[in-house]
Amino acid sequence: MRVASGLRTANGAGPATRGSTPAGQVSNERPNADPAERDKASARTEFEAFVAATEPRLNRALAAAYGFEDGRDATAEALAYAWEHWARLQHITNLPGYLFRVGQSRSRRRRQPVVFAVPDAPDYAFEPGLPGALAGLTERQRLAVVLVHGYGYTLREVAELTGIRQTTVQNHLSRGLQRLREQMGVTDGS
Amino acid sequence: MAADLKDQIHILMERGIRPVPAAEVVSQSARTSPFPEGKSRWPGLRSRRGATFATAAVAAACAAAVVAAQPGASTGNTGAGRGRAGRQVPAVLTAAMLQQVTAASRLALAQSGRAIVVSREVLGGTLQQTGTDDISFDGRNWNDSFTMTTPAIAGAPASSESAINRVVDGSAYDYFVAADGLAWYHEVGPDAVSKLAIPDPRALLRELAPAARFAREGTSVIGGVRVTRLTATNVTGLPTLNSPDIWPAGAISALTIWVDGNGVVRQVTVTGKQDVRVGMLAPGAGVRRELAQFLAGVRDLEKREHLAPAQAIEREKFSVIGRDLRQRHLEVVKTEADVTTMTIRFTGIGQPQIIRAPAHAIRVYGRG
């Protein structure tokens, strides 16, 4: 059984990301607080809401591209960039897509082979060869397979997030799935 | 196991992805306010999110604490100094500080943890092999999931090999393609565990020597943790690596470690270089033709060898031809640099690792 789709969280309707500060705590300020301080608190609240809505999508995409560890670091770097330039970036239309490319450029200098390592994976959850087979796909094939096939994103959503054309995403998806199935020896009806 | 591939992908990703909370982003960011966007004091370091201020302070504080704990240690070269024009001068770690880093790392990783090892071997400028190992350990239990990839070289096709080696309560298991196909195998030979030869990534920590004079060279984020990058400035001061289970023989030509605020090594990148003599075939169609005739003759001789004892004469003839060929063309031996780079990233430091015996494994004896 699949867990709840990340799309709801990505659209902002999901629960806050674990570890984020509840908005109520941030806005609990004194009545006579400095306006600048109020602005900062407000910006932080907005940023936390943005992270809660965007981080899962961004993290999944960058993890699909670079593996769990490097993907997480790239996500952290991209979000940190967003926080540092929040006043300017918060008005960008497709900020998740922008940050995806920030994460890409930040991880480029430490590019390593992709690793999908799960520390305590019970044997019955997935084929042990799946991480290696996924790592064997090209970066774009992995993005398409993981986001569309694994998470149920639409081609358009993947295209907006990654900056790849929809038709290209479709092509990468088809080829990636074919290659993955060949490597895994999987035949299912989906 | 989930039947659908899409479900398996989903489960894999959900198990492996760790969320990045907003609080972590804000706390890791050196700039706590989003509003001032003035020019960076050190534009060259801007890509590191201007974190030099915070990290230098943390590192200096860490260094001060270490030195305080080691009364005999010199304080002359600790802390991040400033040179002319405001540039940061790399601070060199004292022996005491390095000892503290080594001790803290070994203590933190004594019981359990994980390491992702990525290696890459280049011979004479040509990529020979890349490999990744995901190694987790918890007490006596070990798991090594690895992939080795060889690119297409000299006409040989590219290949990739993946397998999992696992030790649970003294029993050895491996997952790879064998006579029974891709499956889990339970090795029950007397030395089955030792034959798996799962490398211990902590062995590399023993190689950190003060003579290398580690210098502080900036910061980055690894596994969501702000770390300080320390690079060996005197690699000739390092011994030849003596960790055959994780490292091929060779002298270290570069060594960089990333250390967190607790002095624990989070990542090590080591590069080894050695000169190897490589036999080459001289180019030219004539040589190839001669070689082909020679090899065909040898094969033919081998086929007929059991028929006539007098073939020894012919064998000698081929031997002479072969020696002549080698002398003229084949023994073009040149020395090339064999460079291996390995990055070991430690995660889950001190955290329990769940390493279970496979639910189903084919029992085999002595395959190793």
Descriptive overview:
The complex is a heterodimer of chains A (190) and B (368). Chain A has 190 residues and is mostly helical. Chain A folds into two domains: 1-115, no CATH class; 118-190, Winged helix-like DNA-binding domain superfamily/Winged helix DNA-binding domain (Arc Repressor Mutant, subunit A), CATH 1.10.10.10. Chain A has helices at 6-10, 23-26, 35-66, 68-84, 86-89, 95-108, 130-135, 139-150, 155-162, 166-184. Chain A starts with 5 loop residues before the first helix and ends in a 6-residue tail after the last helix. With 368 residues, chain B is of the alpha+beta class. Chain B has helices at residues 5-16, 22-28, 52-69, 95-108, 192-196, 285-304, 311-330, and strands spanning 81-82, 88-89, 112-123, 126-138, 141-150, 159-168, 171-178, 181-187, 214-222, 225-232, 251-259, 265-280, 332-347, 362-364. In chain B, strands 9-10-11-12-13-3-4-5-6-7-8-14 form a twelve-stranded mixed beta sheet. A two-stranded antiparallel sheet of chain B has the order 1-2. Classes of the chains: A mainly alpha (190), B alpha+beta (368). At the A-B interface, α3, α4, α5, α7 and α8 of A face α1, α2, β3, β4 and β5 of B.
